[in-house]
Amino acid sequence: MVLIDGKKVAQDIRNEVQKEVANMMAEGRERPHLTAILVGSDPASETYVASKEKACEEVGFTSSIHRYTSFITEKELLDKIIEINNNPKIHGLIVQLPLPKHINERLVIETINPRKDVDGFHSVNVGRLTQRLPTYIPATPLGVITLIEKYNIPTSGKHCVVLGRSNIVGSPLSILMARNDYPGNCTVTLCHSKTVNLKAICKQADILIVAIGKPEYVTAEYIKEGATVIDVGIHRVPSTETKSGFKLKGDVKFDEVAPLCSYITPVPGGVGAMTIASLLMNTLWASKNAPEY
User: 76 lies in which domain range?
Assistant: First the structure.
């Protein structure tokens, strides 16, 4: 069994991005600039945005954060996005989700200039992904396929089961794993919690990608011996084993599943470590040669 070290791969990517930025500066080119909009005071969102800011500083990006209370109107938020769209000094824009209920998330995403949509959520970028055109791939799916590529995990002709159908993770991954490329060329089955005979289908998978959002949902009964298991989930669950009283768990029951696998990602230190590194890759691309569309 090979443990996929997402933390190491992510750091390697950060180092590569940092070198590329240094080269750009030596050539007199513009420094990549990523900006984030944060509405409200959700602790998880605050932590994630702070991590993005720290990562930008580490690799030499310019970063900025626009913070608003949860009482901001939809029009005020859309006006700010349009202002950023029109600022040529800003290359990438992310709006941290979730947003307050009075704001239409889809409208917010659609207002972002697709060429600055480094999260890859705009319908133009989703459409380009399905058509296999150059586009921004959402950070978590990009992290997953990067790990598969870095570990040279065979995919061609394999049966890949994606468990979870979200627009952010499951659906994009089902497209990426089926495309005529590496990593890809799989026969893909997209499942979810309502799928009939779910265990039996998962047990057929050569590659099982789990993003169902339920801690330790997948047990040994779901696993074909020798399978590659990619665990996208991350949950803070009560634990008597740590001083904090909490422990991070994935969607996969790791200790039970790992002995059956050829490759598996841990939680933490697997896919989660790749998310911000993927966002940095997208932002670097946006600053250098973003697609014209």
Answer: 28-116
